[in-house]
## 1
Amino acid sequence: MSGPAPEFKNPIVRWIDVRLPVFTFMHHEYRGFPVPKNLNYFWSFGGMAMVALIGMILTGIMLAMQYTPHVDHAFDSVERIMRDVNWGWLIRYIHMNGGSMFFIVVYIHIFRGLYYGSYKDPRELLWILGVVLFILMMATAFMGYVLPWGQMSFWGATVITNLFSAIPVVGDAIVTWLWGGFSVDNPTLNRFFSLHFLLPFAILGVVILHIAAMHVSGSNNPKGIEPKGPQDTVMFHPFMTAKDTVALIAFILVWAFFVFYAPNYMGHPDNYIPADPFSTPAHIVPEWYFLPFYGILRAFTADAFIYWPVAWLMTPKLMGVLAMFASLGLLAVLPWLDTSRVKSCSFRPIYKWLVIIFVLDVIFLGYLGGKPAEGWYVPASQWATFYYFVHFLVLTPLVGWFEKPKPLPTSISEPVLDTDSSK
Amino acid sequence: MKKTIITLTSVVILSLGLATQANASETAKPPAEEWSWTGYFGSFDRPSAQRGLQVYAEVCASCHGLKRIAYRNLSDLGYSVEDIKSFAAEYEVEDGPNTEGEMFMRAAKPSDSFVSPFANDEEAIAINGALPPDLSLIVKARAGGEGHIGINFIKWMAGRGTASGADYIYHLLTGYIDEDDLEAAIKSGDLPHDFELVEGKSINKWFPGHNITMVAPVDDDAVEYEDGTEATKEQVSRDIATFLAWASEPELEKRKSVGIKAILFLFVLLGLFIAVKRRMWANIKH
């Protein structure tokens, strides 16, 4: 996989490399790392997520220098950052919108994996590490949203931490333990701040494992067939770095647009009202990137048809919580639920549409998650939740058996060399 | 290639569409007004904001605080250091302890925050019957979006920002309904059929629930403008909304002007790197 050992001209670089071969390592892993040459721009979203993570860590460290994690001062200290700290508004808006940007690129990154079968042999562990990253991100984002101590911070924290009270017998004790008291209060804010600072570095660690695993199996590609030789690949550097740079600048452009022209679009106005434990907002909604899962959670009402089968066993609240966690857990076992050996949906005429319908279902769940639990929203979210699970547990295994895939090309470069259109 | 970009764009827009849900308000949305600070190049209308300060000081300040704004911040609105000093000096703040260990009152300085009318929330509630919210962030906190999901997305992308909060302030102040007009207002649909006036409250078309503790604060000639502008109810409401929009987002003008430069720079950079990438991939069949 790696090319010949590099000769470094710079004597300092050589001196270091003999003692600690970081330069040789970088050379082998990037200049000597072959990637399929047919990657499209969907493959740039991992790099974008990395840039988002680094941007979040850097702005986050700067915000932490000015932020005060105390119920009496948190809101004021954030407003002080916005008004009196030099360029504080810029740092804070980058961070605030960066959370949403991070989720947008990660959702597209996950969609890429689903559509092109990037989770299949030999990349199962790479995929599972990705699911772990997704869950860590959600935990980090949730705790970060609590820190400004606005109304939605407080009530969001109250609703979400209360979920654990659904656990039989020990639920209430767990919630008290999580809060560090008998309601969301100063100890809760303090520990959320501590963990919000810690978790991004845990994410960074898992990202390194995620990338290491990717460097073992190599990238998947839109055709979903493994490269057969050098004619199918290009070196990561300089070819993919050139391509990824274009994607990264486009990404930063979108991010900058929101920071400068619509910084509050993805936030909630109620979070500019200081937290008040005695006044509940009319509708408590989590940040938009949680809405699909919030939709699943709320779908389990006492009269929901998806709850009947387990009604003898548990409360609807517990079922909702379990379903929400299961919806993430199913992603992790997807490599074993999908029975087809063909990776890319380009060659799977039926599953291709199932993936697209699944994505629409998730978006629909997100829409419903943001609506009050009334009227047609309630049965709609129950059916959308039902479909979410049917997709993974029934359709995905079943379609893999009976679907007749289109003929696969013999190699990545074949359609190009044959001057035949790839479709 | 083209197909990928189209797919990507639609996926991104779909994901962004989700985000609108988080800030779309459920109650009736007041109509959108024209404001000077919207769009990519918008800036605060200085004379209007200055008149708004006068309205705040003479009307709102008797109940509402503005504690996140310091007197020195008024230089943003075009006031000189001398103006600010004399304006601040009209207010008294508690300072201390002095060398004797006593707290004392002194005239406010430009570095002080706007003095709140009540010592604490409890006093404010005891006197007013409800808490008059501090107005420093009121425009941002009432920016309930632009209604329909698609229109909301387009307006935010066009740089309208939190102007829906200013729309709300303007219409709240002009949306009071006289008790004698109650029947007519219900007939015309301004109020719901099941509306019931709570004893001691005022009726407002745009306030959630329509029963508002604040009595109509502005009427025609509520203030006498120093610059001679006719102080109609609408004019006064516009001016205070403009002033409060500035108070909510004092960084807005700098944000937008830095934004233009940043976006232009990134566009040029993007163009250059597209060229680099094409050159690099020119000889690769894929």
## 2
Amino acid sequence: MKTLRLFRMLSHSQKADRATVLLPIVAFAVVTALLLIVLGGAFAFFTWTGSDAETYKFLAAVAIALLVVPLMTLGGSAARLSARRRDDRLSTLRLLGATPALVATLTVIESTVLAVVGAIAGIIAYAALVPAVQLIPFYGGELAGKMWLAPWVVVIVVFAVAALAALSAVVGLRGVIVTPLGVRTKQSAPRTHWIRLALGAVVIVAVFVAMKLLTAEAGTFVVVLVLGVGFGVTIAVLNLVGPFVLRRVAKRGARVAKTPARLLAARGILESPKAAWRQVSGVAMTSFIAVFAGVAIAVSDGAEGDGLFPDIRTGVVITLVASFLMVACSAGVNQASAILDRRDLYLSLDRLGMPTNTMDAARTRAVMSPLRWVTIGSALTAALVMLPLTGMALLKDPTSLLIIVACLLAGIAVVWLGLRATRPVLTRVLSEPEHAAI
Amino acid sequence: MTVLSAHNLTKHYGDTAALAGVDFAIGAGESVAIMGASGSGKTTLLHCLAGILTPDSGEVMFDVPGGDSVIVNLLGEGARSRLRRESFGFVFQQGLLVPELTVIENVALPLMLLGQTRQQAIGNARPWLVALGLQGFDARRLGQLSGGQVQRVAIARAQVTGASVVFADEPTGALDSATSDEVMTALIHSSTGRGRSLVVVTHNEDVAARCSRTVRLRDGVVLAQEVQA
């Protein structure tokens, strides 16, 4: 009863600022809508019969696997957002003596409620978008009418989104429960170890050598095994090395910063290289496989089925677009919430005479810089691992690779637009100084 | 010589008059405390003087060092922002420094806003940390400092550009009395001690007593002006 009373009290006090409630709801809605669309597409693939049907099912499974990471990232962002909105108040509750169980319960209740509301909005968005999405030509245009999911699947998705929210909220607030003062004062910036880079380099070289040694005589099983393990290990290495590389780049950026925006962006990344990486890591995997698949399509003669390779290319492009959309959403949600969280700080900077453009440039750069490194780094890693074939692909079918590169660039632009969309939040905060405590 | 003055300022929030015909002036090297109960209009007056808010009527005049006088409230948003950047400094109750920057970077930030690179700005910021007793704190993070130390960093940031006027809004509001006294000493010494002007909004009589003059507001009008003995 006490927990519910506290929850109602905290919920009531939030009415003063609707954006703090709306942001997580919008994020959960986007997660649900994209998840339902992806599942709908995959289900459509699984209804097909014919000579290539098994291949299509396999590729659909790969696409879903690729989208799981950015989807989880976006879901996690939304959940952490609703939890982070409570960081200070819950830390204070802890300092006042609230038990860890009470803090955790409050967090779970709120995140779950917001997630369910967002998920319902997401179902509506899914219903609105499916008619347009199923126009994309696949397997001779057979996607139409097959993307509608059974009601029980939709219900499971809502439960999954709510569970993800609850879990992320608990994990996100573990720091508050363990050390309330640490969260409130941000005493130290986290560090990453160089051993990650060394380990990553060794693995990349090993994969490269394995690819070089791979010959057609090795047999299908060995080829698939080496490709699969090589791919999986390289992705794992990207996740291991990513935060380290971002930290090194940001550290140098902070040291040589010529403008306040560059300094603030670099320090923002250094504050948590893992968080900066997590936000864009979904793109790492997709960029990697886009180039990987692009090279494979380019060097093949298209002998295996007339429509298979163009369909794979379409699938790669859709997967790229979806993952960039998710990164754009999660970056936008994170940025909007960061502005609201730091309302007083932004107002104080405005009073010091910092132009709004500088504040905007700093927060945009804090996302775009890691995104550029991640996209280009992952794409180059894939090109490197596939090296002899990459050269052949460039000579044989540059169009396929150009389409992939164009998608990567367009994806970067979409994320930039997502960040740009949060500018009104900043200008509104700056134009409402009466809401601040200064 | 008057550096900053206000004549017949009025400011309304809806039907409520925050300022109802306020006159104010501060000279070079002078410190003025603005006191009054909550809602008396003291923070609104500070915001109008600093060009953060524009009054409904009246004018705020500022003597630009080495230049002409400007009517602050007639300037556009960008020009007022530039004026705050170049000629004014601010100390807030909670410090409101940038938590991800180091101590020295926080002090260097206003200089970077004026176009200096990080290295130049840090070179120019370091003497201020030394002057405020924060030598060796360059690379520290704000979470590693005490409340008094954070406010001294804020004081350094407010003055590093050579601001003519420093505005402090409850600069000791979050500190105990001993630390409050120490921070006020640092604030007054580093501003009026160098010929700059200091405007302090405070509830605290002890803080006001450290200033050369006190202006008392009630319901948006000046109730009394007291010169400290």
